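Model the whole thing, not chain by chain.
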Amino acid sequence: MVTLEHVARAAGVSRATVSRAVTGSGPVSADALRRVRAAAEALGYVADPIARALARGTGTRLVVAMTGTSDAVLDCAYTGRVLSTAARLLAPEGLGVALRRLPLHAPAAELDALARDRTVGGVVLVNTTAEELAAVPRELRGRVVSIGVGSAVVPSVDVDAAAAAAASVAHLVRSGRRRIAMVTGPEWLPCTRRPVAAFRAAVAAAGLPVRTVPGGFDAAAGAAGAEEVLARWPDTDAVLGSCDDVALGVLAVLRRHGRQVPGDVAVTGFDDAPLAEVTDLTTATHPVERITDAAVRAVLTGAPADGTLFFPSELVLRRSA
Amino acid sequence: MVTLEHVARAAGVSRATVSRAVTGSGPVSADALRRVRAAAEALGYVADPIARALARGTGTRLVVAMTGTSDAVLDCAYTGRVLSTAARLLAPEGLGVALRRLPLHAPAAELDALARDRTVGGVVLVNTTAEELAAVPRELRGRVVSIGVGSAVVPSVDVDAAAAAAASVAHLVRSGRRRIAMVTGPEWLPCTRRPVAAFRAAVAAAGLPVRTVPGGFDAAAGAAGAEEVLARWPDTDAVLGSCDDVALGVLAVLRRHGRQVPGDVAVTGFDDAPLAEVTDLTTATHPVERITDAAVRAVLTGAPADGTLFFPSELVLRRSA
DNA sequence: GTGAAAGCGCTAACAG
DNA sequence: CTGTTAGCGCTTTCAC
């Protein structure tokens, strides 16, 4: 194993100088810099992240903290996508990923524990709530980022779900649908409010009735939502699901009620999950990998909070709508 | 932050003694042990994994190494499940998870790099091949485990896919199917050979024709496999898919050919993925969480290799068969 | 600009 | 059985 010491000897300088040269902190003469770089290159030096973490007091892992009402959220496909992306990105840095669930209420204790834990280098909050953002301890600032809503101190990235909802409505209206309902996401989740508002605005602007029912993120919620839609507005000719799983639940209920899709009722989802293609579901893409990528980089670089960074979503037309 | 030093002072012993008491390594008098425990408890001491890793020369993360022909395997749902489980299990230990793909051929270089990387505490090989097992460097022994096939030095855990295949065939035969075909998993993957062998044995034992076609693990492979099955044996009345995705591909092709499911042809999958429930697919469970759990624990404890530990799979009957 | 020296918190010889 | 003594590899004051 080649250490700082070896590079220092090869370059004819002290360990301190090599450290400064390698990390870019502190002053180093152009000449020393060149020699250190050459030596490091020649020896194939790469800093040990563990020793560095111990000396700096920084952590060696990034915690993905999913907010949710139960541990079930940790097993969903979305969590898996976020984790895979983060783990892959961090692998070359010598950093790892850990997974934790944050309780929906009173998350302060958990967040404080994370802030105190010297092994955590940064935190990515997923499905963040306002209560959670308010509870982010000062010590975590600069190394926490949110996927979803953000705050003045917590930078955030998200998909442009509002645009996706608007695009879905536009497509449905264009293809002749006039009585469009939406099964929304979980009510406690702030970032689902944007697409709902966009949906309401879009149908209202088209002069159509505004129909929404509370939903969630799984097929069961979609099924329940569809039942409610059919009960309240039997003439509905299109349903937007908050995500693909919800849309599949909607499809199951429509089939049970003998409604043809897309003949009688059109259905759209959101995510473009693998099952959307298999089930021929019209849906909008959710670039989870790009979003996670941005979030991880933001944590690593300590990016300041300046509004939410939105990633575009694209409508994928298939048989269902 | 409370360190070893604090506990030592409170217990009236040296740091070394506290270390021995806490880790359980080396001799400590019953009296000292008691006092150290009390002090540690009172102060809420918890060892810093980073300092420990630096001193011991062990890593702070566990690498999940997926074998595959392309990076696409890193994005599949299965990888996500493995990663979520591992990340959750490791969180309380202060350890993280990293994700890497191992090339199908000549994996020795990658494995050597992992062995040399001081940040890696252990490795979980997924979809292991014989070539890979042979290339496991000596330095990795005792901290590497395989999900799939194992070797004399690499312990392994897997699902009992052979039993699942046999159970599926038994169910199909019981319900009157007589011309059963199987779309197998990827040919390069050794652990898929067991269920194929079990399938062949089961149909042969029932006095039925043995029909298998090479497949893979995604819907496209299932579709291609189904086309081949229909071309070679048009009278087939049941198809086993190597996994749920494959079964969905099979379903799509059957539908396209106007075959009724389960009327004309029965279809079964394997995994019991979320989409199996949504699409009413008869399938066998794949306890990925339990398997990963066992694998991670084995890496952490350095369990010796003594044959593959198999986890049971259960048939879930739904509409498709 | 540069080097010497003092740690970060823990483990592991080595004497006693 | 226990304490002392060196480190693990890197960062970071603080003099020069």
